[in-house]
Amino acid sequence: MTETDDLLAAALAVRERAYAPYSKFAVGAAIRTASGAIYTGCNVENASYPEGCCAETSAIAAMVAAGERDIAEVVVCAESEEPVTPCGGCRQRLAEFGRADTVVRAAGPRGERARWTLGDLLPAAFSLGDGE
Ligand code: THU
Predict the structure, then answer these.
(1) Quick one: CATH architecture of 3-121?
(2) Cα maximum dimension of the chain
(3) For the segment 93-126, what is each residue's pLDDT rounded down to a tens digit?
(4) Would the CB of 45 count as within 6 Å of ligand 1?
(5) pTM listed for this prediction
(6) Which among 29, 34, 39, 102 could bridge 55 via Cys, Cβ 3.0 to 4.6 Å?
(7) How far apart are CA 40 and CA 76, in angstroms?
(8) Model confidence over 45-98: pLDDT tens digits?
(9) Which residue among 43, 79, 81 is best mutated to probe the pocket of ligand 1, counting the most ligand atoms within 8 A of its Cβ?
């Protein structure tokens, strides 16, 4: 199994832990950092709907909490008619730690369905220039 497949497997596995009783839409996300480590997250919903958290945001939080900040590749896994892309807010959060050429892959239970770069998904991303 390649490193890339490992990332997909991690996204699929964490999706099983999604807490999505309101939308019933389970999402898993896996991030590989420049060091090669993998961080995962799932969506965690709340009875107060806007307080729910996306899978990508959970994975970013796990990465930062582990002391890493350099996103090399992302896999988002969900089951839907069209491949699922990160929402607008998550694109901005990914852009904080990724680059325009960072690959974002969409997968379903049967494997990869599409891939983009972060630059495709969020052209002209907001940034504070020198800020980190
Ligand atoms: N969701 C994610 O976790 N990631 C995405 O990229 C799209 C949407 C979640 C948020 C909410 O829990 C559910 O999917 C339905 O929108």
Answers:
(1) 3-Layer(aba) Sandwich (3.40)
(2) 41
(3) 999 999 999 999 999 999 999 999 999 999 999 9
(4) yes
(5) 0.94
(6) 29
(7) 10
(8) 999 999 999 999 999 999 999 999 999 999 999 999 999 999 999 999 999 999
(9) 43
